[in-house]
Amino acid sequence: MKLLKNKYWLPVLLLLAFTNKMIAQDSLAHELLLNISFYLPNDKIPYLKLSAKEKVERRFIPQKGISGSVYIGEENEINLLGQVNTNDKGEAIVYIPSSFKSIWDSSSTISFLVISEANKVFQSTKSEVQVTKARVEIDTVSTDGIKSVLAKVTSLNNGQWLPAKDVELKIAVRRSLGDLPVGDEETYTTDSTGTVTAEYKRDSLLGDTKGNLILVAKTEDHETYGNISVEKQVNWGVAPKFENLLDKRSLWATSSKTPFWLLGLAYSIIGGVWGTLIYLIYLLLRIRKLRKAAA
Amino acid sequence: METHQLTAAKITHDLMPQPFGMKGKIWTAALIIICAIGAYAYYRQLRYGLTVTNMGDYVSWGIYISNFVFFVAISLVGSLITAIFRLTNVKWSTPLTRIAEIIAVSAIVFASLIIIVDMGRPERLVNIFSHGRLQSPIMWDVVVISTYLVISLLLLYIPMLPDYKFMIESKGKGPKWMSKGYKFFGSFWKGTGEQTRISKKAVLILSILIIPVAFCIHTVTSWLFATTYRPGWDSTNFGAYFVSGAFLVGAGAVVVAMYVFRNAYKLQSYITVKHFDRMGKVVVMLALLYLYFNVNEYLVPAFKMKKHEEAHLSNLFAGEFAPMFWFAILIGMIIPILVLVFPKGRKPLPMFIAGCMVVIGAWFKRYLIVTPTLLHPFLPMHDAPEKFKHYFPSWEEWAIAMGSLAGALLIITLFARIFPVIPIHETIEENHETAEK
Amino acid sequence: MVTGLLASVAAAGCSDKDPFTPDTDQQVVASGQKVKLLSVDGEVIEVDKAFLKPVPELPQVSNTEARRGIPGKKFVMVIDLSRCKNLKKCQEACNHAHFVPDAQNWIKIHPMQDAEHEAPYWQPTTCMHCDEPPCVKVCPVDATFKRQDGIVLIDSDRCIGCRFCMAGCPYSTRVFNWEKPDLPEEISTKHYSCETSIPQKKGTVGKCDFCPDMVRKGELPHCVSACPNGVFFFGDMYEDSVSNGPETFRFSDLIRDKAGYRLLEDLGTKPSVYYLPPVNRNFKFEDGLKIEEERKNEKVK
After folding, report:
1. What does pTM read for this prediction?
2. Is the residue at A54 inside a domain?
3. Count of A-C CB contacts under 8 Å
């Protein structure tokens, strides 16, 4: 009763109600880290990769099922390249359909925009990337027994392909779980002519059955050019000779690959002992047979 | 002296299995209750998993395994008393052969059962036969244990054939199924010269065969530990160490059984003071042998104190396991030796106490072989629950372990109810021989 | 040119192809529906729609295949002790990815100090996948086995729970499912595969499996990707290269130059995990102790 007599009871009550809602919303304030990058493998089709993550404590957790609309240029229905959902790893890929040829050809620098749909956890998020068209090529040189890899980056400028300088490249040999740099340096930077030479120091590396290796030169999330890469097959590897571990007999092999000495020893002992036991059973049966004989 | 007054009739009467008196009934009932509690504990283990035990990722083997080793050890007595004494023409051990064999058989049966109890997936036991790897010491153990069981059963059955005649003839004294059983198992024995000859040949072959198999059984069991790298197990001494320990505990078990049967069935004329005296000397010799192997097993690594063995050895000599370690050595070996070295100590009652001490000391010795080593792994015990860093068996483990011991005793007890524990026929024969002399 | 582009488009959507094994299981069937896309020069290319979809999940590997392993590979791991701060992200990722039951850790990060005056350091310990595996030698039913790619796996459908392998392992890396693992419904009813080690089963043994399911997809094991300091490197000894994601090194050079060693070498187990000594650290060992405290407090809560 005393409370209601207080003339401020209504504002206080309303304030309490809203504060509750605000506190509840704060605890739900999740920030979506949306990223869009441009990929252009040499002589292949360019694509855009979306990546959706959330930072929880100190880890980045990939977000699945985020719906993103990708636009070429401004946010506009005609500019919509596609709408995709991120997968288990929080990634999605979008290609550039041929209908956008005119926009694509219009300038050497294109910008791409992704807008994610708001859902229960995240609000709508935007991310942009600007890309200047560029390409990278590699060539191999072998002089006096020293092998080198030559990489050249060119970018499109007013319809002309001009050398691009100060571009950091990774020049490596493709391996199944990573790319092994060809030399001691992690990255190689192009000079004013847009080229850089890397000494190939990976001798006697195993290749495929014919000794072929795949050389790779690529940029990693370059601010202007995105991710451009090129692959080239080269016969600098050694053909492998694999010995199947499972062919040998050993103590740790499967039951069908028991070492012969163990098989011999075990079966001769078991055979000897159980042979004797079978003989003994036979003796017992003989005793039994003799039950009809006179005492 | 007493044997002169014995006639065949008296011998037969004395040695025939008798129904349980009050003590026998209470004893059997107690054993059945302990077994039942063990069975209930096993039901809980089957339902909830091995988590009902206190084993953990470090102490992954506990008293089930130490009980297993204990049982396998005791089972060697069959080969000792029956085979070795037979082959060396020791006559005084004749009354003890059957006791030794039944202890061996029941111990081996429960060794197999307790191993199945220890398995995480007992229903997959058949995998050992369908997917077995001959490279594994467990396979060797399975083969040797089954072989030894068959040999022990044959060595129990074949020498007992002549006694069936007496058992069949004494019908009317027991339940009908017993006499039916006797007839089935032994009525074909007529005691003819030919049958006797074959039977003696069979027993001779078995006696020779069982000795290497007995050595194998405990050596292979010791290799379950010696084929690992762990401190305390990584020893070349293990085979001989285990076998000598097995003979000792087997002999101790026979001494205990001798005393109990002698008193329960009034067999003073058959298991005489002289028997105790001689068994006492056997036990002393075996205890000294086992003590010798113990010295080799512990003194030599202690001299070197290698890094990974240091913690384990210090723990045994002066740490957490020291009381148990010294208890096992004193009670299991030293005090029995001191008691039995003197003729007065080899009288029945002190022998019985010494026998009990040997057996109990041996049980703790097996526990000391399994658990302390597992508490000293090469890498630190870390990133694991606290409770994994200690081990004391849970009530379920105790119940099952005690249940298995009770079960073994139950088999022995029931055997004595159905069959004569002292070979009747052989006793009569030997009595005639000594009378003729 | 067009066929080349068609094939390369398939590659664009796929994971990295292995240069050694023939392209058998990544053949995509053309659907007949075509889509027009642009190349970098503005050329219009027609591509079959089927090639644009990412390659579907590889079918589950059969038990026989899981026992044989991936031919022509021998997996190794290099753990750089000079980078490990006991953050335990590897442990979290591994436990999470394999639904490892609560009391277990397949990766343990041990505080080590070999002798009084020697350096204290944090040592992440996985299964060593030894070339002379004592655990495989003693298994009575072939439930744990070594494959041709060097990985030692456990078949939880065959394991009888005798725990001899646990006694035999000198690295104490194996754990046992003493009770029924508390798994979410959809995981416990999943079809068991030795390569994923999911779902774990009561009464059987578990351990680190070098994530062969990830490796088949051309991805690194979970612990390797999860470590923020790049402590773990994983790769193929035949390819002679190990990677932690961003960095790739030539394995033989790395071990030779940084004096890599293996644990308990004198036992003769021939482990597949190499350690780089904890030299030139720019952090204190004691910092890792704080995380131990935090973990203990979390558990108490």
Report:
1. 0.88
2. yes
3. 143
